[in-house]
Amino acid sequence: MTAVVDAPDPPGQPPRSSRPPLWRDVRVIRVVLQVAFAVAVVALISYLYSNLVNNLTDQGIRTDFGYLDRPAGFQILGSDFRAAQSVSDALLVGLSNTVSVAVIGIVLTMILGIIVGVASLSSNWLVRKAATVYVETLRNLPPLIVIVFMFTAVILRLPRIEAPAEWFDLAIWTNRTISIAAPSLDAGSGGFLLALVTALVLAAVVWIVRTRHNARTGQPHHRVALSGLAFLAVVVLAWSLTGRPLGIDRPEVVGRQLEGGWSMSANYAAVLFALVIYTASYIAEIVRGSIQAVHKGQTEASLALALSGFQRLRFVILPQAFRIAVPAIANQFLNLTKNSSLAIAVGFAELTQVTFIVIGNGNPAPQSILLLMFAYLFLSLVIALFTNIVNRRFQLVSR
Amino acid sequence: MRWLAVLAVFVLVLGACTGDDDDAADTPDAPDNNGEDNGDGPSETIDLVQDGESVLASVQDSGVVVCGVNDAVPGFGFVDEDGNFSGFDVDYCRAIAAAVLGDAEAVEYVPLTAAQRFTALQSGEIDVLVRNTTWTASRDGGEGAAFATTTFYDGQGMMVRADGDIGSIDDMGGASVCVLSGTTTELNLATVFNARGLDYSPLSFEDNDTLREAFIAGQCDGWTSDKSQLAAVRSAYPEADGGPESLTILDETISKEPLGPAVRDGDSAWFDAVNWAVIATIQAEEFGITSENIDDFTTSDDPNILRFLGEPDPEEGTVADPGLGLDPDFAVNVISQVGNYGEIFERHVGPDTPLGLARAENDLWTNGGLLYPPPYR
Amino acid sequence: MTAVATHPSGAPRGRAAGPPDTSVGPVGWMRENLFNSALNAVLTALFGAFIAWAAVRLALLVFVNSDWEIVQRNLTSFMLGRFDRAELWRPWAATGILAVTFGLVGGAGSVTAEQIAQQEGRQLPRITWRDRLRRFWPMALLVVVLLGFTRTIAPTLLALLVLAVGVVARSVGTRLPSVLNRFIWVVALLGFVAAVVVLSRFGGVGWDEWGGLHLSIFATGSGIVLAFPLGLLLAMGRRSSLPAVRIVSVGYIEFFRGVPLITLLLMGQFMIGFFLPGWIDAPSQLARALVAIVIFESAYIAEIVRGGLQGVDRGQIEAGQALGMSPLAVVRRIQLPQALRAVIPAMVGQFISLFQDTTLFFILGFDELLNVGQRVTNQPDFVGQGLQSVTLPFVAFVFWAISYSMSRESRRLETRLGVGTR
Prior knowledge:
The structure holds 3 protein chains of 3 kinds.
Chain A: H1 26-58, H2 87-119, H3 125-139, H4 143-154, E1 165-167, E2 171-173, E3 177-180, E4 182-185, H5 190-217, H6 223-241, E5 246-249, E6 252-254, E7 257-259, E8 262-265, H7 266-293, H8 296-304, H9 309-339, H10 351-360, H11 365-394
Antiparallel strand pairs in A: 1-2, 2-3, 3-8, 4-5, 6-7
Chain B: H1 2-26, H2 41-44, H3 55-62, E1 65-69, E2 72-73, E3 77-79, E4 85-86, H4 88-101, E5 107-111, H5 117-122, E6 128-129, H6 137-141, E7 145-147, E8 152-161, E9 175-180, H7 184-195, E10 200-205, H8 208-216, E11 222-226, H9 227-235, E12 247-249, E13 255-259, E14 262-264, H10 268-287, H11 294-297, H12 303-308, H13 330-337, H14 341-348
Parallel strand pairs in B: 1-5, 1-6, 9-10, 9-11
Antiparallel strand pairs in B: 2-3, 3-4, 7-14, 8-11, 8-12, 8-13
Chain C: H1 25-33, H2 38-65, H3 69-73, H4 75-80, H5 89-119, H6 129-149, H7 154-174, H8 178-182, H9 184-200, H10 212-238, H11 243-258, H12 261-275, H13 285-310, H14 314-322, H15 327-357, H16 361-364, H17 369-375, H18 388-416
């Protein structure tokens, strides 16, 4: 198509295929089209933007971000945020709440999803059916209804603060707060912390040594047991040597609230559990499909090698299934993060609800919504980046 | 794929160009559509951003009042089984329609959330906001709203369980408090507790229904809201959970909450119309005129009443027109179709309703209340 | 917001995963499927106990502990929101039109699917009544429940009439001449538009007064229909060889897939009015929500269509070019027909997810199903009785029944259209 020779055509003769006229030259057309397209897009955006600015100034709505420094005027459940702090601080608290739901939710979702996914392939008919019913029920409900239902029908039915339910002093749950005991350190326990770090390093070293040993000789590595033992030994030794600084911070009822331990507000728990059981139904389907997609010959081969059922799953099936499932699972992580915005319906102060409150208190909506969208976009990008790394790490290197 | 790009470019360029052209043409010769040419489609559309025209004219043009309301406040604004809006606030939408258009049913209701209401008002989506909205200085100023005569004098209160150890807000250190988010109530809550040096856990909900569930389940020690709403909840508290006696509304009033209709700033004709529709209901009660007995008053001896009802003055023979842009007999429409203030109150929130509110501040000034209509003359 | 409800594997489920039925009799079956090892015996006992407990709780909830009066009395609100009760013939007429449309499209579609299967040498499984029942029992249950809540006989008769009309239309659809068959999508579009016209025009009820299930279905239908052309353009833009077009398309798709729908709906409510020049009226709340939905859905549809386009064999395109077809003809006659067929199941999945996302209207204060479920608890007869525990399960059931039937349908379409089997 492209002309090689750039010679003028002889006069009197119609131009041949050596060089098409300008308006039919593919390269020119491409450039012109793209420039026109870019100009059109820029024109459209700048037109909308100028409308926005005009309308906002006409109605006396501020177009700057100065409101972010004003005092917020409201308080947020489960944080040290106070009314005198600025709007931007409130938004940051909301962001951290969103991240907290997303991160913990992703971990729990994976655990539940893999269990249900494997259960839906169980040889036990009842287990298989139960898993299927779970998946088909949750997948076909709107997440918002799952959240509202989890809050009103499950969390609010927990015992009241006046008569909390307890489990061996280690966990307390009420319909305000759910708390479990947490390890606590006394003041001046720097030595113990140092020992903890040492133990971690030691465990890692043992792990690597055993793995190499296994790779070299083929003998069983027992790396989990051995490195765990090394870690425990150092920790226990250090703990008794440094005067037993590590205690247990038990939750207890103080006045009208639970204090101590690791605790989460009931509203947070509702959102977390609802999103976990909802998203896990999708993860379970992905896991099931990926396991089924692993070639049958692999199972047969591992049976021939006399691997146990657990070994077969752990070393043959799941690693391969995981590789197939990574992109789809990453998509569900994104969904979970975005669905956390529905927490607004049950009064959990994540980013969207804080933005709602900020707008409701007379702060300008356009800037607030813009910030909100970019915050979610940022979270999405972080998850995409992370899963890309995981994906690259797990993909087969094609030879 | 190239044809696609061509198409896209074409569409976008077209879109941008027409927009620009019209924008340019818009400013110099804005059409002066002042309701004269109301024959066909275009003139019916309400030009919202234009400064010159009052909403009053556009409402009279279109024949319908677009009223922003709440659909989830028992007694004040809710939707019945047949899909009709009902309640105290809703009746004021109807009163405004009766005054302006002569037909109380010529209302289009737009249910709004707390966060949306002022945007809806500013953007001209609604003509008037009658949605238990508190009259505050910053809303008058910053939100670009103008508040007409208060229809309901309320105060923010705190409701707690009667069997607890809370007798006043000072006992509420460390308490969990349920509150509707994005409201003045939420801001007042922070102010009051911080002023007293008390700590608290706020549970901010987007809607009243979820909040009520949380309170009934005991998730919060206190529920702060307008006292009228608290009374409504208390009176309807399920017997299974102890009934109304198991709840106490603390005596303290956290803040004043005058609730009334709001319109857009800078439209005095429309503001006057809305304002006097409200005043007419109060004035009627002061005169003792109800929807039942209004026919007896058209032959009254009292010139004040005759003037109010748009009847000719017996001595001069002329009908007084105060220049509100309303029909002289607008008050007759309001009272006969909607009722006077007392009737509206009794119908939706009074002692015979589930809310069972007493008149208290919302009684006429002659009975020691705050309702004091300016004279109609 | 929720992902496309397709399955990573097109493999049939349940039966294929289990062992073949070799044993005879219920005892043999139980030994084979429930007690074939000690672990399984324990699991069976545990799950059996749990399932029995859950079933008893559910039965108690449905038949004993709940007073369904609030649903019964507000059934019209659940279905239609604040729709003018004097105009109830309109929704029925619209339902009838939609039944005719679905019947025609379904009949014609099954003929097309058979033709395609024949061309590809596949044998389509016969559809038995058992299959239909497996797919549509939730929908049938929903209809029975709804009719059970009505207080007169008229709705039942009308529902039967609509069903009959749909069945007749389906058999007409299988006998359409092939010319009409090819343009069946026009019929689908016309049917939807006609339903909207019957509802809203000629003295009808404007869409701002719509609510309940009706609003959810309408918003989903128009959202998908309006977003599809834009999604198609974006998908092609993303595969364009022009970098500028590609960058803009990718930017659009990735941006709107990266944010939750609720933020876009908020933008729609608070900002769309500001983006318009002063001489345009502010669109109504619902119109702005629809704009937000179209912006959002087109990004997702673009990705679905892109998947379909990528599935088209390059050899097909090259064959078309070799035959001297213009680029436009290659797209229109080779790429699109194959790609669009391949995306139908995924589009049904997207439809389900949008249908579920219409619950977000609740946060905007629209009168959709979830909002009706909450607001009816404020009526004087029901206020303060904690009746959300009755209305919420009802709302959840409505969503579940419709979504479940449709996801079953999408799975069936996968096999019938041969998607993922080649």
